[in-house]
Amino acid sequence: MAMPILHRAWATAIGDARAGRQALIALGLNASTSLVAGAFLGSMRDTFAEKPGLLVLVPAAIGLRGNTFTPVGNRLSTAIHTGTFSLSRNPRSVLGQNVTAAVVLTIAVSVLLGVVAKVIAVALGQAESVPLADFVTVSTIGGVLASAVVLASTIGIAGGAVRWGWDLDDVGAPLVSTLGDVITLPALWLAIGAAGVAVVTPSIAVTSAVVAAVVVILALRSSLDQLPRIVRQSLPVLVLAAAVSALAGVTVERQLEPFTTHPALLVLLPAFLSSCGAVGGILSGRLGTKLHLGLIEAVPVPGRLARRDIAVALALSVPVFAFDALGATAVASLVSHDTPGLGTMLAVTMLGGAVAMAAVILVAYYGTVAAFRVGLDPDTYGIPVVTSTVDFTGAVALVLAIVMVGLG
């Protein structure tokens, strides 16, 4: 008797039971695989000690996958809802132009991320960080390897949405974030092997920069109707997002002691940041679609449907953050990483999550509305703005929560 009542209460809170179930499943998968990525991150702590500064790349590189491919999912979702989407290999189709744009942006922003991460590391006191060529090489090789998998999966998810009736706004962001987490760290680890090699590393860095410049110029001069606009609008916001996400890496690296003392916190870090970004992606995607369909207005005070979407985000975040804490504790124990205990992990996650969700809601709503009001595509701008802000504020919130519970 209790379970049906609880289910009905939950369905009322999130509005639509099927959509909520899809979102929870996607978020649960996102959190689970992010914990695997966290275990991988914990095992890399010696690598980051040997190559100072590269930890700055981690949140930004993970975020770049989501920032690049979740907007692809959102744009395809809008195309599905408006009846303009088709699974076509034609490069002029909606799908074809989005795929081309994702490839161009991956190469270009990966190179720029290496430069931005090095500049931020030096500016914030990491003068002994590895050379610029190492940053660019690791960022580009890791980015291309990870993006190949995430791009193929994003296309598959869009196809599944059409075939099985999924709402891409609810499943796209969590699943892309999932893939970004679980693929990016191993890809970066492989790429780090190419760092510091005489002649080879600088050659890769220079070649990557030249290729990035060429593909961006070709995309901007393309005769296709959507490709130049997507690249032109996406490139500045993705670079800005990468810079903000890199600040998250600096925040963690400058407060590294609690994370190395209790590696369970490193296990928690990707799951926590990814969950914040995935919930924010769901909110931003729902708002963007409703703005395109004219169901909500771009006004300063959220209307009824917008408030309902905000309530969905809050309702989804509570079990997801609890799962992050439980999962991080369990995974850390399995791989023999020290943990401060389940109670402390729950306190850290829920305190940090409360602060982070406040930022998620504000940025998701007002960022999406602002983009729409000035004539920009909220599907292109909403996710990068949300996830990059969440990477930084989430890292700060997590560190603050760690200090508050007495671990810092």
Provide the fold topology.
Blueprint: H1 2-14, H2 17-43, H3 45-50, H4 57-82, H5 94-123, H6 132-164, H7 168-192, H8 200-220, H9 227-254, H10 256-261, H11 264-293, H12 304-334, H13 342-373, H14 378-404
Give a quick set of tags describing it:
408 residues, mainly alpha, disordered N terminus
Model description:
82% of the residues lie in helices and 0% in strands. With 408 residues, it is an all-alpha fold. It has one domain (2-404). It is globular.
State the domain count. 1
Global structural class: mainly alpha
pLDDT averaged over residues: 82
What's the β-strand tally? 0
Instruction: Please write the string of helix (H) and strand (E) elements.
Output: HHHHHHHHHHHHHH
Can you tell me the overall shape?
globular
Low-confidence spans = 1-15
Q: From the alpha-carbon coordinates, what is the Rg to the nearest angstrom?
A: 20 Å
First-to-last CA distance: 45 Å
Estimate percent helicity.
over 70%
What fraction of the residues are assigned to beta strands by DSSP?
under 5%
- Helical segment count: 14
Q: For the report, how would you describe the main beta sheet?
A: none
Please give a quick description of this structure:
The chain is mainly alpha-helical and 408 residues long. The protein is 82% helix and 0% strand. The longest helix has 33 residues, at 132-164.
